[in-house]
Amino acid sequence: MPIKRPGKSKSPVRAEEMESLRKTAAVEVDSDRRPTKEAHAAFWASAVKFAFCFGGLQASYLIWGYMQELIMTTKFQPTARVPSGKFPSAAFCVFSNRFLAVLVALVAVKVKHGAFFSNNAAPLLAFTPCALSNTLSSWSQYASLKYVSFPVQTVFKSSKIIPVMIMGKVLQGSLYPWSQYLEAFLITSGVAIFSLYSKDAKTDTNTEFLGLLFLLCYISFDSFTSQWQSRIYKDYGKANVDPYQMMLGVNTSAICITTAGLLVSGDLPIVFEFLQANPVALRYNIITAITSATGQLFIFYTIKEFGPIAFTVIMTTRQMFSISLSALLFGHVIALKAGIGAAVVFGVLFYQIHQKYKGSSSQRSR
């Protein structure tokens, strides 16, 4: 009887097992490669989307800021009732911005909800307080440019953290850690240094004080606006009031307020006469209104896609670009000490962004 030596014959079962293992390994390699390719494609898709948001926000608000300064500082052709040649009404600038914003918001709400006004949304009266404060803050912002430079205005805006904290405490009973008070103090100190050493030789102390007073009104009213909007979301629920409905409600109330203000003040016929003599001023207002509306849409889209931290980074860098662009185009001189003040302000702002990022990262990892 022949003796079977081990290893000499190949078992069919063994061969099938080896083939199965080879196929399994090949599938695993492919499955390892596939997510890598998908992740690579997703990364570039996200990068393109972020570049679109970054570019859209920068373009919208850099042009918006430039046109604001151009409108309020250009000496146009004088008219009978405006012999100075300066644009006669900051309220009309606010009106033109709100008018286009209402149209854009109507389209956005109609597309998203199928109706211009939803029964589930907050009533129009609920938006009136923040619409009034938003109108007054925008008016103060335009008016301040008659007395202070755009770089001073831009850096001064960063100090609104203090009135935001005050309004949060008064309206919603918010509590803040001591570190936020320290950051607010540093930002305010940086703003004060920048404002002190950015004096224009052509601007006297009285007019500069008036400009800073307008800026103080701006940050106070703007802080109330954001806190009241948060209160609306809290009272009526984010499920019933989305950002586009908020945009529509606030701007609808604001357009009523600005129209009434133009009629009561008598600015409307003065502005019409001025625009007839200076059609370029009308074009400036139209461009400002368009970039204001596109900026709001980019804000909503960016926050939706990348969250508030990425949006804050983009807008903080936008402020730095705005200062540089204004200094370049309008000849503002920024002294070394003023630059140090600005560095303190933006340094604290970026530190705040970093802390928020660390906080959100730790929450996601839990």
From TrEMBL:
Superkingdom of source: Eukaryota
Compartments reported by the entry: Membrane
Keyword terms of this UniProt record: Membrane, Transmembrane, Transmembrane helix, Transport
Membrane topology qualifier: Multi-pass membrane protein
Any Gene Ontology CC annotation: endoplasmic reticulum membrane
An example molecular function term from Gene Ontology annotations: 3'-phosphoadenosine 5'-phosphosulfate transmembrane transporter activity
Pfam families: UAA
Protein name: Solute carrier family 35 (Adenosine 3'-phospho 5'-phosphosulfate transporter), member B2
Protein source organism: Fistulifera solaris (Oleaginous diatom)
